[in-house]
Amino acid sequence: MTDIATRVYNHDWKIDPIVRSVLDTDFYKLLMGQTIFRRHPGTRVTFGIHNRTSSIRLADIIDIGALREQLDHVRSLSLTRGESTWLRGNMFYGKRQMFSPDYVAWLEGFRFPAYHLEKWDGQYELVFEGPWVETTMWEIPALAIINELRSRAVLKGMGKFELQILYARAMTRVWEKVEFLKTLAPIKIADFGTRRRHGFLWQDWCVQALIEGLGEGFLGTSNCLIAMRREVEATGTNAHELPMVYAALARSDAELAWSPYQVLADWQEDYEGNLRVILPDTFGTAGFLAHAPDWVAQWTGIRIDSKEPVAGGEEAIAWWRARGQDPREKLAIFSDALDVEEVARIHRAFNGRIRMGFGWGTLLTNDFRGLVPNGALDPISIVCKVISANGHAAVKLSDNPTKAMGPPAEIARYKRIFEVGAQEARPALV
Amino acid sequence: MTDIATRVYNHDWKIDPIVRSVLDTDFYKLLMGQTIFRRHPGTRVTFGIHNRTSSIRLADIIDIGALREQLDHVRSLSLTRGESTWLRGNMFYGKRQMFSPDYVAWLEGFRFPAYHLEKWDGQYELVFEGPWVETTMWEIPALAIINELRSRAVLKGMGKFELQILYARAMTRVWEKVEFLKTLAPIKIADFGTRRRHGFLWQDWCVQALIEGLGEGFLGTSNCLIAMRREVEATGTNAHELPMVYAALARSDAELAWSPYQVLADWQEDYEGNLRVILPDTFGTAGFLAHAPDWVAQWTGIRIDSKEPVAGGEEAIAWWRARGQDPREKLAIFSDALDVEEVARIHRAFNGRIRMGFGWGTLLTNDFRGLVPNGALDPISIVCKVISANGHAAVKLSDNPTKAMGPPAEIARYKRIFEVGAQEARPALV
After folding, report:
1. What are the chain A neighbours of B169 within 8 Å (beta carbons)?
2. Which stretch of DSSP H or E encloses residue A178?
3. Fewer CB within 10 Å, N- or C-terminus of chain B?
4. Is B165 in contact with A175 (Cβ distance < 8 A)?
5. Could you report the predicted ipTM of this complex, rounded to two decimals?
6. What is the Cα–Cα distance from B46 to A390, expressed in whole angstroms?
7. Cβ of B180 under 8 Å from any chain A Cβ?
8. A1 contacts B6? CB cut-off 8 A
9. Span B143-188, pLDDT tens digits
10. Among chain B residues, CA nearest to A210
11. CATH numeric code, A4-157+384-408
């Protein structure tokens, strides 16, 4: 076992790289990457970092030089031989050769594209412009770097034993959560915590704790590098960026209305089985489900993200029933701001009614709440989202207006076209 | 920092030696050893292990083969060159050349003498017979081995992460105690926990936590090896074995009555300053103080051991006053079954009235109470005491009849000669 406290104590070496591998990213980036590589090689997409927890002035906490060093280090990375072998030879979601030789070959030659970094009003403006298939790769490392640099800034002044006790307390907390989750067995949980993790070593420790603690109840990790090293499943499907870009590229209101289904039409040509999981909330779940073609209801499952999860699950069950599907054969993936009490509540609500999977993210890999003064290690809600595609502004509505993004006029247009009515605002904690 | 959980996980290697150095012992054994070497080279003393926590059947928990292996390993040890250099060159209690060249030369040639080991009624009978200067050296390693083998037996079935969380919780507990002690500053605390430690690595960790956490408030450790490696003070003075042996060798009632003072008369020829600390309770504190010659009252301090500590401190203050001494210049060392609440209580009682030092033992280096089911790691009260000297039975009365030892007829004789009246029994927890 790595002694995390010692390593953290040594963090102010010249540079202790945060992201050391192209595969230190979420699996869904590779799945989406392959679809983008095949279908949208010429599309240019701009991504940008947005810190929704604006009270935390990241530019005052994180040194811009250190941030540049870490981002520059990512630009020096390339896929290693062993990593490439793993992508080509490993079985993902029960299938061999998930990634085509031409996509892996492209990935072998891939280098992270340039970034634009500025300070503005206490926050960092960090923007990635270029071919979609390249810029999409920045989402996870950029977020992981910012989150870990923030952790390091807080940890820097602490003594060796203070650090060791900090990690002792955090480990005990994770383990007590794992012991609680065991009482809910059978339950299926995956680590979705790469982007907002406290640090790489910490995420790796959390995954190992889940392996030992949950046994069969552990589905895997979204982190490709950790999945490879720990020999567990790499998990994940797709994200809002697909419908957001498809929508931004639509040339008419009719194309815009169809765009979220076009995403699925493309996706099901590329992937099958448990990878056919709808993410319905990009422009409002209700309208998405109401207007969906019947073949969408035949997909394996649904991801409940921005909607209150029990309401979201009930909505999905009602919809499947209305479309002649048996909900007990369907899979619902819950993944929004989960912690164990919330997992237990959702599990109680749907146990025996649908198949469930839980994507446990920030509050698995970054629950240092209250462990240092002033909550300086409490996680923040930071995202890396599509801003525009081929020059057209991108929009996300979601089921929670707190999470909406895009120019106001475009948001209004999208709300009209996707028939989004009143929405319930919920705070975006993490 | 060593990753203790990993090391413990590897404990069932062929042999993972518990005691790896002649200096992995308490400093007072060397101080007493030098006095014995000079004055009693021909005296033969038998020591024996006694587990006062008889409900814990050590012979059922600890494998006799493993115990023999560990004891045999100790017999293979000899002082290393660096250790010898440290004894010759280091400053102890403000003094250089505390140990004379002839004693260090003897120690360089020293090998641990034979032991006798048998099972009896669920306990181990472990006895050391031979020259006092040799057998005295077994006390600490024998106790440390038994305590650590018991810990290892309990830890053996645990998973890697269970172990890591166990240590995370134990570390957090120690650190919270240290943080509490800081609130009592200025306070002076030493580690006295070698004999009943959870394990060597754990004691070493605890000492480092005290170094970082207490700063100037940390007096040092009784463990010579850790003092040498961590470059802190080695602490300790003398123990009950000196008056017990001197008393057992007395050839008349008058010699017996004088024997505890003869110990001090010899001691003050060998040691000065803060090493002149009376241990008055071997045959009852009240009688000892009442009959003590005036030069005893001129000593630097007193160790309060088996008596209720506030009562013991008040008794010492009254005695010093009666002998024309200023208690504010005197030192009281408290060392019996201390934990932080007890330290705070004693500190409140005597702050500003006497100088105080605290020898924190078992509940520093072995507080795993309640951390595994059935309290299987709760510390036990186990001692290694003088049984006889030159064939005469040894006796200890102390201020707590629970701790008395020796043949009943001899106990009665000692009580008469040392004028011991009614005593208050207190449970011997650790």
Report:
1. 168, 172
2. helix A160-182
3. N
4. yes
5. 0.78
6. 91
7. no
8. yes
9. 999 999 999 999 998 988 899 999 999 999 999 999 999 999 899 9
10. B161
11. 3.20.140.10
Cα gap B303→B49, rounded to integer Å: 23
Q: Is the pLDDT of residue A13 over 80?
A: no
Q: Do A169 and B165 touch (CB under 8 A)?
A: no
Say if residues B383 and B143 touch (Cβ distance below 8 Å).
yes
Query: How crowded is the C-beta side of A48, counted as CA atoms within 13 Å?
Result: 18
DSSP characters for A295-358? Answer: HHHTSSEEEE-SS-HHHHHHHHHHHHHHTT--GGG-EEEE-SS--HHHHHHHHHHHTTTSEEEE
Yes or no: say if B62 and B143 are a contact pair by the CB < 8 Å rule. Answer: no
Q: Is it the case that residue A332 has pLDDT exceeding 80?
A: yes
CATH label, B166-365, candidates 1.10.238.10, 2.60.40.740, 3.30.930.10, 3.20.140.10 = 3.20.140.10
Tell me what the mean pLDDT of segment A315-340 comes to.
97
pLDDT given for residue B421 in this prediction: 86
User: How much is the mean pLDDT over chain A?
Assistant: 95
Given an 8 Å threshold on Cβ–Cβ distance, is B5 in contact with A1?
yes
Q: Quick check: A157 pLDDT over 90?
A: no
Q: Verify whether the Cβ–Cβ distance B172 to A167 is below 8 Å.
A: no
Of A186 and A117, more confident: A117
Enumerate the residues of chain A whose CB falls inside 8 A of the CB of residue B212.
159-162
Which of chain A's residues have a Cβ under 8 Å away from the Cβ of B159? 212
Q: How many Å lie between the alpha carbon of A172 and the closest alpha carbon of chain B?
A: 6
Per-residue confidence (pLDDT) for residue A159, from 0 to 100: 87
Low-confidence ranges of chain B (pLDDT < 50): none
- CB of B97 within 8 Å of a chain A CB? The answer is no
- Whether domain A167-365 has CATH 3.20.140.10: yes
In single-letter form, the type of residue at position B210 comes to L
Chain A CB within 8 Å of residue B10 CB: no
Residue type present at position B49? I
CATH class of the domain defined by B4-157: alpha beta
CB distance B171–A168 less than 8 Å? yes
Per-residue pLDDT, B427: 81
Query: What is the reported pLDDT for B1?
Result: 65
Contact A212 B6 (CB under 8 A): no
- The residues spanned by each domain of chain A are 4-157+384-408, 167-365
Which residues 146-175 in chain B show a CB within 8 A of chain A? 159-162, 164-165, 167-169, 171-172, 175
B202 to chain A, any CB pair closer than 8 A? The answer is: no
pLDDT at A290: 97
Q: Which has the higher per-residue pLDDT, B267 or A426?
A: B267
CB contact under 8 Å between A175 and B161, yes or no, is yes
Name, in order, each residue with C-beta under 8 angstroms of B307's C-beta and a sequence gap of 6 or more.
B281, B285, B315, B399, B400
B189-191/B355-360 β-pairing: parallel
- Do domains B4-157 and B166-365 share one topology? The answer is yes
Q: Which of A2, A158, A160, A164 to mutate to test the interface with B (most CBs of B within 10 A)?
A: A164
Q: What is the pLDDT of residue A217?
A: 97
What pLDDT score does A49 carry?
97
What pLDDT is recorded for position A1? 65
CB pairs under 8 A between A and B: 51
Residues A356, A343: contact at Cβ < 8 Å? Answer: no
pLDDT of residue B248: 98
CB atoms within 10 A of CB A425: 10
Name residues whose C-beta falls within 8 Å of residue B371's C-beta, 6 or more positions apart in sequence. B166, B169, B170, B377
Is some CB atom of chain B closer than 8 A to the CB atom of A258? no
